[in-house]
Amino acid sequence: MGGERVFDVVIVGGGHNGLTAASILARRGLSVALLEASERLGGLSASYTPWPGFTAPLGAYVLGLYPRWLMREAGIEGRIRLLPKEPGMTVVLGGGRALRVYGDAGRTSREFSRVSPADGRAYLGWARLWSALGVLLEEIYSHPPLHPREAIEHVYRAARTPLVGRIVEEALEAAQWMLTAPASRILGEWFESWEARAALVEDALVGEMAGPSTPGTGIVLAHHYLGVSTGRRGEWAYVQGGMGRLALALAEAAAGAGASVEAGSRVEEVMVSGGRAVGVRTSDGRVYRARRAVVWAASVKALPAVAELEKGLARRIRSLESSGASSKIILAVKGPLRPRREYSWLGEDLYRSSVVTMPGMEYAEKAYGDALSRGVSREPWLSINVLNLVDPSLAPEGWSLASIFLQYTWRRARRWGEEDRAEVGERGLQVLEGVFSLPREGVRSEVLTPRDYEALGNPGGSIFHISMRLDQLYSSRPLPEASDYRVPGVEGLYLASASSTPEAGCQGCPAGWRPGGS
Prior knowledge:
Layout: E1 4-12, H1 16-27, E2 32-36, E3 47-48, E4 56-57, H2 68-74, E5 82-84, E6 89-94, E7 97-101, H3 105-113, H4 117-141, H5 148-159, H6 162-178, H7 183-190, H8 194-201, H9 217-223, E8 237-239, H10 244-256, E9 260-263, E10 267-273, E11 276-282, E12 287-296, H11 313-318, E13 326-334, E14 338-339, H12 349-352, E15 354-357, H13 361-374, E16 376-386, H14 387-390, E17 399-409, H15 418-432, E18 436-437, E19 443-448, H16 450-455, E20 493-495
Parallel strand pairs: 1-2, 1-12, 2-9, 6-15, 12-20
Antiparallel strand pairs: 3-4, 5-8, 6-7, 10-11, 11-12, 13-17, 13-19, 14-18, 15-16, 16-17
């Protein structure tokens, strides 16, 4: 096909991070080309059509980490509408028992008091601490890695009041051990009842090949207390029209500011001259020259070999851990998805929240060990979201549509052919039927495995591009020498995906954008 075009910046990867960078840079007056290998924009934040008339999330199904100020910077404020989840979670404990976790700490405290008055009181302190940690981590994550003292100064400037400053000091003291400890230890120190521990452990495990007793699951727990998209800390929300509306809004904003957004353009070479990235070449021979920068917004592990990389860096990038641990079932049911009798008392909370099947931390630990030995948990835990009760536009009238996150399914342990896909579907629906009654007819389902996510550009099937391990976070993400978003040895080549931000997730900040930033 051939041809050559020249831009200020060329961005490779059309997930929400690449699209955010494209919109911001174009809105600041730069000429921008964004190239996405797939025909679909959004990466794992995209929506797709499993059956005519249905809109389902390919990967991410709720938004919480993408900050309001970044929506304004990227030009999408007003282009998307968020539908808050409340309760955030309804945790099914078995035998008709359940605990709800609300965005409001007082309501959750009263809920926990049903099983333990002491845990009800403890939750108020827990919520206060994690809110402060949220302030700290949000400030840290929205900048390139800083020296700890610089990070603290940024936090105090953000906090501004003595009261918040004292809370942040307490959070810093707690962070010294809580962000590296196993979730089982953290929850065991705070809560006396197994029910309260079970209600909170899911946030420490989601997306990672780790069990409650795995060191470092505290940082994954913290990650899920950072929700800021709605303006209310810790609250997560659905995007009206489907999660893919985020990517579409970003693409519209970028194109409206003059960016060239091109799907179906696979980049196979980063062109380097004189130690500087000067453009890219696509698989069909097209050349996109970059006067100022090439931004690699796909997984760092997919970065093409560049001869100028510092010695050993390419090998170290290839060795990064990226182990997918989860699968998804998209389920459509003709008529309402009815709860089993013992859970009918929960009413609409079963449809408005994420329903998590977690009858104890030991259950999750067993599921984890099971997957380590055989690749698929015999009894996985699920996070079930019935999407169209909150947003009827996602399914035809008279149908129920659910997105079911399932863990554990270990990419490394299996080939993930059709027999494996069938087993995941069978085991997931068995657990689902402990909460909801499925009809004999009018049921459609589709299973997405770690191999499917790998094919979508996520090495190893990891929804975070590379695993959220202690040695692959903050100033070590993806590697210590590349944690400032620059590629050592190649001037003008930047990293901007979930594998290069200090933490992962659908939050749009890997390039260090912040109010007043450059």
